[in-house]
Amino acid sequence: MNLLRAATTVGGWTAVSRLLGMLREVLMSYFMGVGVMSDAFVVAFKFPNFFRRFFAEGAFNAAFVPYFAGKLSEDGMPAAKKMAADVFSIMAWFLFGFVLLIEILTPYVIPVIAPGFSGTPERVDLAISFTRITFPYILCISLTALLSGMLNSVDRFWAASAAPILLNITMIFGLLMIPHSNLSSGEILSISVFVAGILQLAWLYWSCAKHDLRLPLHFPVITDDVRSVIQKMIPGMVGAGVMQINLLIDLQLASFLPVGSMSYLYYADRLYQLPMSIFGVAIGTALLPSLSKLWRISNTKQALHLQNKALTFSLFMNMPAAVGLIVLSQPLIALLFGHGKFSAEDVAQTAPALAAFASGLPAYVTAKVFTTTFFAQNDTRTPMKVAGFTIIGNLILNVCLMQYFLHVGLALATSISAYGQVIALAILLKKRGLFYLTRDLLYFGIKITSLSIAMGLLIYYIPSIISCMYIPSIFRRYHDVSFVLGGCTVGACFYMICSYFIGTMKSIRD
Description:
This protein has 2 domains: 3-437, no CATH class; 438-510, no CATH class. It is built from 23 helices and no strands. The chain has helices spanning 3-31, 36-55, 59-75, 77-113, 121-134, 137-153, 158-162, 164-176, 185-210, 224-239, 242-254, 261-296, 300-327, 329-337, 344-358, 361-376, 381-405, 407-431, 439-460, 462-466, 473-477, 479-502, 504-509. The radius of gyration is 23 Å and the shape is globular. The relative contact order is 0.12.
């Protein structure tokens, strides 16, 4: 399989989804703004998505995809499908019971997730109501993740990558219905999340059936294969979801900060997730099945080459994205969200949080590649241990930094702890002979970092440069639009042209 082609397929569809997601957030900021309602919905939306990283894309994929890929290559498709059907049934029945339990216990769960809400009872009541609507989403999206893993294992990436588009389209439709409905914006958005989960599951089930991968739902039976997947999944729940655990801690601590802090973090998080999802998740999704097969046949040389290839591609795309988000944080937030109920003060509070999150972007995607190597080796325990120390470090940094920087301190702590995680994973991989910092990779990193900083300086000084030039009044009137579009265009051209001449572009193609 061609890693670049597969990553491009995943990244392309993810890009479409994320762009629609940006439109969703723009409409959400316009109709909902920042306040009690938005804080309550953020909790209700993040809570099922927190478990999604464990039962779905994160821990589940880390355990299921390598096992399914190995079963497929060793025992053939019938045996692999039988194993997948057993896991599918176990997951469906377990999550049905889990959802039912949370629905009953929601009034007791919300005070744990957002303990700071106790000072504003209205936020508590709204969060409970919204969460009861959104939480069944975890059942649908987890089963969707299993079906996606099967398709990815047989090199069918597009259907799974396109599934999140349904969530964004459904929520956009719901937002557009707000002026024509008697329901509140939070209620409509919560219902949209639930409906989107059903649509995503139906889409992936149909796609699997189209490729002769239909899975029947039967009474759960714990076979040896199922037991192996579960055993690998449990430690991976922490290892793969470390960033989500950090974000949950941020959510809990942010509930103690002034009203709106959760919403500031939410909007900043959604924007920096755009490049991370397009490139980081795309690389991880495309890399895991291939690495699993290479390690299974002990092709160490090719596996290490593939890993370094993924690192160079990730850094090439994400280092300039991080610098660009930092430099353009204020005009980006103003351009996308500074309308309707989203005030100028909300822009001023959200922009530094975006810059703080963006500073950790290279670490997030590098960690994704490193953890993928562990998972491909069927080792989910080591990332779990590293994640445990990372979570502790993040908590300490959160408590220290939030005292001085409020919600921005929480975002900065998440970024710092991500770099600690990457360093620890790299050291452990090197000790096992699973990672080598080659001279080419080191020089590539230095070139990309230097070039990205130069690009950032160019973008930063664009206003000073163009102030000396004649600019039509229409462009001056739309300052944020001109700055963002002009900065992105000039920065991207500068980066790509310089990359061509210094040879970094050639490195990702070789």
